[in-house]
Amino acid sequence: MDTKATIGRFIRKLREQKQLTQEQLATKTGITYQHLSGMENGRENFTIDILESLARALAFPLPQFIAGAFAPESATSGITVNRDYFRPQVPLPPGMKISHLEAAMNATQSIVARINANLMVSGAKPLSEYIQGNNFSGLVSNVFCDAINDHSPYKHNSHQAYPDLINPSVKEGSKPVGLEVKSTIQIGKGGESHNGHAGWHLIACFQIEQQTGNIRFVHLKFAVLNAHNHPEADWTYVGSKVNATTGSRRTETYNTTLAGLTKLRDGSVFLDPTVINFKRWRQGRKGVVPAHSIFANS
Questions:
Q1: For site-directed labelling of 236, which of 36, 121, 212, 246 has its Cα 20 to 30 A away?
Q2: Which domains can be identified in the chain, with CATH numbers?
Q3: What pLDDT digit, counting tens, does each position of 114-163 carry?
Q4: For residue 287, what is the enclosing H or E element?
Q5: pLDDT, tens digit, for every residue of 20-50?
């Protein structure tokens, strides 16, 4: 194995995911872009100090940086999203771009694939077989949020409160614009919240591959939803229910109304037509179908 070439390819991959030019990354790292170019092409030698600087500039802890560079290619090959499934006409939260979403989706799928590859090499089962469905969806949400944090202007909300992410550079009134993120395996599902707040929401639907346990995003939808106390609320109160089988009590919950669900479905920014058949989905709206909606020409 050519160590310099292996690490160089990984540096280029991370730099491109971050949408940085060689000049930009070299400046952040404190080396010349000619040196960086030589490293990416496997020609230049490098010190551990340079690797630490590169890992820091790319927001990657050095141990993960090294492990990622030498991970088996089969662990992450063939799990990138299909760019043809993006719908660029759909309005996105301020500062968000399709390229940000693509990078975050690919990173999330890659992380789950790496975990599963390590589990299966040791003779264990895929991760999803050890975790209850709703908890696994929560795990995917957390990984996806972190990937959006790494690949877009939207960053973790430091207060660990609603919403999951904020864009510090864009304000709505006195507060940064926010984004709440939920992942689900249930195709066509609406939003679910403990608060029923207003603002931007993202629902990410994924599938689990049977043999590998890897995930694949099939549907992403955005919408600005009205709070539960709004005159035209997009949330309905579900309450706190007791599971008849286990006796456990569910947390106070709000679900999106049909109007809220319709807004989300209108905002389908990524849709895999080999999986999603929306023609018979119900709609609940006032006024005309927006031009960006999946229902506009159906």
A1: 246
A2: 1-70 (1.10.260.40), 78-298 (no CATH)
A3: 888 878 767 788 999 999 998 999 999 999 999 999 999 999 997 667 89
A4: none
A5: 999 999 999 999 999 999 999 999 998 999 9
User: In this structure, are residues 228 and 198 in contact, taking their beta carbons and an 8 Å threshold?
Assistant: no
Strands 215-225 and 199-208: antiparallel
pTM for this predicted structure: 0.77
| Helix then strand then coil, % of the chain, to nearest 5 | 35, 20, 45
* Number of residues assigned to the chain: 298
Quote the CA–CA distance of 81 and 217 in Å, as a whole number: 7
To the nearest 10°, the Cα dihedral for 105, 106, 108, 114? Answer: 160
Closest residue by Cα to residue 100 from 19, 1, 210: 19
- The token duo for 249 is 């009590």
- Under 8 Å between Cβ of 201 and 182: yes
Q: 266-296 burial, b for 16+ CB within 10 Å, e for fewer?
A: bbbbbbbeeebebeeeeeeeeeeeeeebbbe
